[in-house]
Predict the 3D structure of the following.
Amino acid sequence: MVHHTISTSSTRAPSASSRITVMTRVFRVLCAAAIVGMLASCAVKPPATPPPATLPAEPAPPTGDVADSAPLGPALQRARSRWVPVRWSELPGFEQDQMHEAWNAWVKNCERPGATFARLCSEVRRLSLATPVEQRNWMRARLQPYRVEPLGAPSDGLLTSYFEPYYEASRVPRAGFGAPLYRPPPSLGQRKPWYTRQEMDVLPEARAQLAGQEIGYLADPVDALILQIQGSGRVRMTEADGSQRLVRLAFAATNDQPYRSPGKWLMDQGLLRGDVTWPGIRNTLAANPGRVNDFLWSNPRMVFFKEEPLSALDAQFGPRGAQGVPLTPGRSIAVDPQSIPYGTPVWMSSQGPVANLQRLVMAQDTGSAIVGAVRADYFAGWGSEAGEFAGRMKQPLRLWALWPKQ
């Protein structure tokens, strides 16, 4: 019998310990592969395309007819105007106005809001820190715009401007300061109308009743006239001891005489042509110094003042208007209250040689010359720059009253 054997010179059979080592390595490799596979199966793989957003995009703010698509109600009748309901899209420049500027005036409105707007004041105050988009959306939701029209035949509206004069003053008469400003005299209510401006200057009995009522003195009687026409002003008062303080001279009363335009008097006299502004008037008077008293006396109306302290906070606002709240420069207007009630937010549009104004304003004041449906006097602020602006402002005007929805 032939036995076949494996030659040990070419292959050697492994020992028991070697076999165990090999098996252990194989086992480890298999375990590692299994673990990698498990991890791979648990991994979150990015999708080929991004998933759709889970939150809806913020809707765009409503504009135009989208914001107010409900049927428009009837027109409203006022004593001197007719209000026609319109869409918000009719208001020129509504999307561009800097609403936060107007909101300061609106918050002031809420110091004496009247019954119609009182219920909105908590929301108005809360929206003081809101964005212009949020403020505009709130207005669309809560208010209805009405175009203000005259009761009779259509006519162009008129925008003028007024300001708070700012002058140097002296508590006592002294060299260079001789134009007096008065408190209401005690006898003011005993005679209606009271003495005219000219009579106060020349009649001994009138002068006697004004004695002791001087608040202070300005350097120029024309400045005193301007302050009386504007109805209030701020002055840097030099006291008798030389100290100075800032005070406001607020409207207190009149002599019940009619107002007549001194500028028109100059035109009627043939002394002034074209430039009917305070700079033009001053130039004319400088060329005709002998006519200054006649110029002053051409307006028989006199305004009397009361003195008010002016704190740093108060100095940021104008005087109190007829509504009883401080006026905000560029955002308060004087109106005819028979056309637009005090406290009403108003959209104003006026374009002309002096300024292009499309903005939210508040009806917070009135004046003896402010009469009619589409008539407003724009509060420009205080000082010489505001005075220059106010002296030249005379432009066409359109108004929209913004009234709470029912």
